[in-house]
Amino acid sequence: MAALLGRRVLLKAFRVHTADRDSACRLAASTICTRQYDFPGKLRTARPYSSDSKDDLRVRYLDGDDAGIVVVGLNRPKAKNAISKNLVKMMFDTVEDIKKNNKVRSVIICSVVPGVFCAGADLKERAKMHQSEVGPFVSKARALITELGNLPVPTIAAIDGAALGGGLEMALACDIRISSNNAKMGLVETKLAIIPGAGGTQRLPRVISVSLAKELIFAARVVDGKEAHRLGLVSHSVEQNESGDAAYLRALELAREINPQGPIAVRMAKLSINQGIEVDLATGLAIEEACYAQVIPTKDRLEGLAAFKEKRRPHYKGE
């Protein structure tokens, strides 16, 4: 019974992306042309920040040895990267592009703006909304963060500054969070007489303990990177550097560690973990078995065995 249920859960969650590779490449190429900044080194851009709403999000598909890594940079300096209608739309489009591209192996979410990751909802925009508009907008933002969490590849949040409210909820949807030691994080919605509305009440207790999550949310407490690491909210807290991109650089190091591993295996490992932790152990083991079955017929598995036998590095193609 557990095995049958496990396979049903897997089939519901598992989607094999069979989009045409040329189409995926065109999507990637168009994204590079329209949303760029200087990666993978400094996060600073040489040209002045743009006030054009089309520049709210900058996405780069890295190349060379870093091919397969996608860096998504939030860029609303005047609004401290607050989540607006336009940013939600642009992020939805980006997530869809990534889902269709089988060559993507990991995603880094970071900020182009010094000293801030994301300040949460754009309250100035929110204040102009009619009451009837607020619910649908929050639902769309929640759906975006859910889609981010459902990306089949590893996602890393690089938090080099304040991640508050919806900004922290965005980071919580990522598989791994890395922060600078001086970054500030918190779900502060109760200060505004509301609650986290984009998954914070559900994801934070799953990342840290239920009791600690309640304490942080009830008190609208903000913690720094060191405390966040102690609580288990972030996997790594790194000393901030002069250029203010220490968390991003550490995230890039981690993405480079993931890059050479078998891409299908990494995707199946993520699916197995994400689905398995939501069910009992017997069902979780059945999900793991079903995910393992997906890697057995792959060319990558045979390449791994051949490389081991020949004492060389494997060259995986995601096939």
Describe the protein:
By secondary structure, this protein is an alpha/beta fold. 47% of the residues lie in helices and 13% in strands. It has 13 helices and ten strands. The strands form two sheets. It has a six-stranded mixed β-sheet, with helices on both faces. Strands 4-6-8-9 form a four-stranded mixed β-sheet. Helix 3 (85-100) links the parallel strand 2 (69-74) and strand 3 (106-111). 41% of the residues are buried.
What brief labels describe this structure?
six-stranded mixed sheet; 319 residues; alpha/beta; globular; four-stranded mixed sheet
Fold blueprint:
Elements: H1 2-13, H2 21-34, E1 57-61, E2 69-74, H3 85-100, E3 106-111, E4 116-118, H4 123-127, H5 131-149, E5 155-159, E6 162-164, H6 166-172, E7 176-180, E8 184-186, H7 200-207, H8 210-218, E9 223-224, H9 225-231, E10 236-238, H10 246-258, H11 263-276, H12 281-295, H13 299-310
Parallel strand pairs: 2-3, 3-5, 4-6, 5-7, 6-8, 7-10
Antiparallel strand pairs: 1-2, 8-9
